[in-house]
Amino acid sequence: MTAVTAGTTGTTGAPGVSDGAVAATQAAYEAVFDAAVAADERIEPRDWMPEAYRASLVRQIAQHAHSEIIGMQPEANWITRAPSLRRKAILMAKVQDEAGHGLYLYSAAETLGTSRDELLDKLHAGRQKYSSIFNYPTLTWADVGAIGWLVDGAAITNQVPLCRCSYGPYARAMVRVCKEESFHQRQGYEALLALSNGTEAQHAMAQDAVDRWWWPSLMMFGPPDDESTHTAQAMAWKIKRHTNDELRQRFVDIAVPQAEALGLTLPDPDLRWNEERGHYDFGPIDWTEFWDVLKGNGPCNDQRLSKRRQAHEDGAWVREAAASYAEKHTGKHGEAQA
Ligand code: FAQ
What we know:
This protein is mainly alpha-helical. It has a single domain (30-331), classed as Ferritin, core subunit, four-helix bundle (Ferritin), CATH 1.20.1260. Helices cover 62% and strands 2% of the residues. It has 13 helices and two strands; from the N terminus they run ααααααααααββααα. Strands 1-2 form a two-stranded antiparallel sheet. Residues 7-13 have low confidence and may be disordered. Bound molecules: Phenylacetyl coenzyme A (FAQ). Residues 59-60, 63-64, 67-68, 71, 75, 98, 129, 131-132, 147, 151-152, 155, 158, 219-223, 228-231, 234, 244, 294 line the site of Phenylacetyl coenzyme A (FAQ).
């Protein structure tokens, strides 16, 4: 079963076509789309898709893209103060990778008919979200390690299943993103290991960072399943492959033995192996804090958005120069000149 190509399947606007005929055609397209999803086929940009599917993808991909570029800020805060040239070079490469991830994701959203400008305008106007995690401050160098280990670790847990997302361009973008995130996670783990095995003060710094980043990392997976607005439909469409709670549990199960290997403690007295479930039990998450951060009341929401707006304004000349270059080197009919 192959999805129907949008260009050949317009359902409205044909003169003399009755409402009943339009509805029947619409139902037929929908059946083809449903069958393609059921058969685990990829939906591609030119395929017909329900408008709600398109809107849901734009919402999720935009939030994801915004998270990548806002996520550059807490880490960039330490580039000038990295403890060695080696650490500085690694951190610069990581922050650049995040910009690249934003680029792949904005490009994936563009294939759904939304321009990058439009999405950035919505971000700057506070009309689209980015991940709650990036509204927390990076107070010490150890926070860079904790972000790599926990935040990138949570991001990988969430994003590996997205490589099997039903929408082709998003799934393919995720393959490369996940490879790079794996490198990021390892560098964070290694930086924390060095601190944990260092002086007493360095060990304490690593522990303090883990104490502050642990709970917000668990919140990254989104609200509990019974409060998640989009999960059921997103799973039916195979955009999401697992629920928020399933992925959160998977992350906890991976992180606990890693914390032990690091010689660091996770700040949860209720954390213990549950033989019957075959998983770690963990304590209650403070969902009031999560919703409060989403409303704009986290420690760094204002700072993150105002820096982003400023960066966009500062970059205006680059966009103008690129547009003017493209105009100069493009012929009357849009083809590039030799
Ligand atoms: N923060 O119905 P659900 C990274 C919102 S990338 C803010 O469960 P859904 C890389 C949600 O949008 C991190 N808002 O939503 C990196 C919805 O509001 P809406 C980003 C959140 O979509 C590392 C409402 O709550 N990753 O870290 C959050 O089914 C280091 C109800 O929620 C992605 O975006 C949250 N944590 O599930 C970069 C992955 N959670 O839209 C730099 C792709 C929920 O109705 C440095 N996204 N909300 O207004 C997803 O997998 C999903 O969108 C979820 C949320 C799982 C995040």
